Amino acid sequence: MRLRSQFMLLGVFLLMFGACTEKVQTDLAKTAFIPKPVSVTATGRAFDINSSSTVFVHEGADHLVNSAKFLADAIGHLTGSSVAVETVSDAPAKGIYLSLTADDKIPAEGYKLSIGEKLISIEGGDEAGCFYGIQTLLQTLPATITPGEKLIVPTGAVSDAPVYSYRGVMLDVARHFFSVKDVKRFIDFLAEYKMNTLHMHLTDDQGWRIEIKSWPKLIEVGGSTEVGGGKGGFYTQEQYKDIVAYAAEHFITIVPEVDMPGHTNAALASYAELNADGKARDLYTGIDVGFSTFDAHKEVTYKFIDDVVREVSALSPGPYFHLGGDESHATKHDDYVYFVNRVQGIVQKYGKQIIGWDEIANADMVKGAAVQFWADAENTSLGLEKGAKVLVSPASRAYMDMKYDTTTVLGLKWAGTIEVDHAYDWQPDTVVAKLTKEQVLGVEAPLWSETITNLNELEYMVFPRLPGYAEIGWTKNEDRNWDEYKVRLSKFGKRFEAQGVNFYRSPLVPWEE
Ligand code: TNX
C-alpha cells in the first residue's frame, strides 16, 4: 500500500515535471531564435503574459504605436483575448514597454530586449530595431496554445543588431502575377525574420505589372498574360502604393525593378514605336530569355524610360531603382553600354540610386551604384573596381526557384539543386575574390516565377530556405554553423504549420514533432 502511494506520488510528480518541461520553458538560452541574435543571457524565471498585460509605448515615438499594436494583435491572436496599448512618459513598473534608445549605444536596426518577471522592455536603436525586438519576443512564445494555458516568457536579455543593412528577397511578379494579398503575406514572412527589403521584379518578357499613367497600354496589353498563357494581371498605382505602405509598416523597403534593355517583350508588344522596326511584338508566354531588346538609338526609348522611371520613383520612397540589365543577348555590347549609361542618368535625375544585375558593370558606374552578383564573378569584380557595392545573390546558393533536389516537382535547376544546408552554408563576403565586407551591401534571395504559379507553390520554394537567408544577412559568419542552425530550424516546423505555410520537410532537418 505504501509502495503503491509512493508510486502514485512519483507518477504525479513525473506528470507535473513533464508538463513543466514541455510547456513552461523558462530558459531563454534554450529558445530557438532565427536569425541568431548577437547575445542571449538567461535568468531562469518567467514573465506571465495575460490579458491584463498592457503594451506601453514611450510618448512621442509615434511610429512605435503601430508596432505596439502589431505586438498586441500577435498576443491576442495566440491567447484569443486582446491586449491594450497605452502611451506613457516614463517606464512602467509592469507590462511590456517599447522605447527608443536615449543614447546611441544601440545601432540602427538593433535592439535590447530585457525580460524581467514583471516588466518586458524593448529598447530600439531606431523604430526598426524596436520592431525586431518585438519579433524576437514573439519567437519566445509557443506557436499555439490551448485555451486557458498560460503564456510564459523566459526571463533574461537579448542584445542584437544586424551585420548587413540590406537583407532581402526578390519576387518575380512578371512571369506569373501575384495579387496584393499574396505579396502582403510574403511581406509578413520577411518581417518575421527581420528582413528589410522586397525587390519586386515588375516587368519582363511575359508581363508588365505596374500601371504607368503616361503609357497606359503597358498594363492593358503587356499585363494581359503570363507564362503558360494565363490572364496575368497588374498593380494599379494605388495598389502598388498600398503594397509600399504595408511594407513600410513592417520596416520593409520595396525596390522596384523595371528590367531593360532585354527582358522587355511585354513593353515591345504594347507599343510598336519602341521596336527598331516599328512593329509591335506578339505577347510571349514561354520561358526563354535573351531575345528581346529596346532600341538603344531611338530617342523615344529614352522618353519612355524617363516617364517610367519618373512615375515608378514617385511611388517608391526607398533609395533604390533596379534597372535590371541582365541577359540582354539581343543587344550589341556597345549599344548595351551606351544604353545603361543613359538610363543611369535618368535614374539619378529622379533621385534614386542604381542597382542592376552584374552585367551592368560593363557600363560606367555612377556614384552610389550597386551590382547584384547572380552569376558572373568577373562582371562583379569589374563593378567593384569601378566603385560599386555588391548585393550578393549567387544563383547556386540563393535562388529560391532552384529545386531542393532532383525530385522537387517545382522549380528550375540550371544553377544546381539547393538543399536547405547548401542554401545556408555560405558566406556573403567570400563569393567573389578580394571582396571586403564593407563592399557588400547585403544579401538577397530571388524567387523567379517561371514555374511558380500561386502562393502555395511560392511558400513551398521559400520555406524553409528563407529563414536561413535572413540569418546570413543578420548574423556574423563566425556565429553560424549548419549543425547548430538545423536544430533551431527544426523547432520552426510547428510555427510554419500554425501559420498554414506549405513548406518542404527537408530530410536534413530533424523536425520537432
Ligand atoms: C536568370 S538571374 C534570370 C532570370 C530567370 C532566372 C531563372 C537573372 C538576372 N536572370 O531571367 O528568371 O535565371 O532562374
Describe the structure.
This protein has 513 residues and is an alpha/beta fold. The protein has two domains: 24-160, Chitobiase/beta-hexosaminidase domain 2-like (Chitobiase, domain 2, 2-Layer Sandwich), CATH 3.30.379.10; 166-475, TIM Barrel (Alpha-Beta Barrel), CATH 3.20.20. The chain is 34% helix and 19% strand. The chain contains 16 helices and 17 strands. It has helices at residues 2-23, 62-79, 127-139, 180-192, 217-220, 237-249, 265-270, 299-315, 333-349, 377-385, 395-398, 420-424, 455-462, 465-474, 482-490, 493-498, and strands at 39-49, 55-58, 85-88, 95-100, 111-115, 119-124, 151-160, 166-172, 197-201, 203-204, 207-208, 253-260, 320-324, 353-357, 370-373, 389-392, 440-447. The strands form three sheets. It has an eight-stranded parallel beta barrel with strand order 8-9-12-13-14-15-16-17, surrounded by six helices. Strands 1-7-5-6-4-2-3 form a seven-stranded mixed beta sheet, with helices on one face. Strands 10-11 form a two-stranded antiparallel sheet. Helix 2 links the parallel strand 2 (55-58) and strand 3 (85-88). The radius of gyration is 25 Å and the shape is globular. Bound molecules: ligand TNX. Residues 289, 326-327, 357, 374, 399, 401, 412, 448, 450 line the site of ligand TNX.
Q: How do you describe this structure in short?
A:
This protein is an alpha/beta fold and 513 residues long.
In total, how many domains does the architecture comprise? Answer: 2
Low-confidence stretches: 1-5, 7-22
The CATH architecture of the largest domain: Alpha-Beta Barrel
For the sheet with most strands, the description reads: 8 strands, parallel, barrel
Shape: globular
CATH topology of the largest domain: TIM Barrel
Structural class: alpha/beta
Ligands, deduplicated: ligand TNX
